[in-house]
Amino acid sequence: MAKKLSGGTKRKLSYIISMLGQPKVVLMDEPSTGMDPQSKRFLWDTISSSFSGTERGAILTTHYMEEADALCTRVAIMVNGKLECIGATQHLKNKYSSGYLLEVKLKIEDITDEEQAHRLEELQNYVMSLFPNAVTLEKFGTYAQFKVPKTDVPSLANVFASLEEGKRHHGMEEYSFSQSTLEQVFIEFAKRQLDEHAGDHDEDDKKDNKRISSLII
């Protein structure tokens, strides 16, 4: 019977079997891989309720940072087999995140595409006046997304006051200002590792071009 089940249902069945006998510690490897969003959320809620308020624990490995954020009280991030950090998810975000993510949306009005593009440009200029070192990640239609470094955010209260000002006077319909996700923290570590390897490769390249070529392959 189990052979005929879908991949997501097999994952749920595997978790149920792992909990038989009330084990003290459960080892899980990407328990929600291959599931649709609704099934993932259901399994995450089930796993969380199984361990909440008990003396049982679980060790979980995953490449899916949203899964780690949803299930884990402490997270360890490894890059290329090297342990980079360990701690509570919020602690890691506070310590290692490079900044914030700002998403803004223009008010939808009966105007030409050219006028809409001009208004979005004006809104972008307003955002850049608030955060001089921000980087535009996306911009299309009535939507724009920015990466804002921590150095541009001395006070969250001032940030939200300025964004509310943007809603009143700069055609902004809505905005979202959020801390970097665990996924972005992981990406920052991965980028750092790549930069280190690039530096190592450059140094080795001076010594032995043939050797470095084989390493890149």
Automatic annotation (TrEMBL):
Residues 196-211 have a biased composition (Basic and acidic residues). It comes from the Eukaryota. GO terms for cellular component: membrane. One of its GO terms (molecular function) is ABC-type transporter activity. Coiled coil: none annotated. Residues 196-217 are annotated as: Disordered. Residues 114-179 form the ABCA1-4-like C-terminal R2 regulatory domain. Pfam families: R1_ABCA1. This is ABCA5. The lineage of its organism: Eukaryota, Metazoa, Spiralia, Lophotrochozoa, Mollusca.
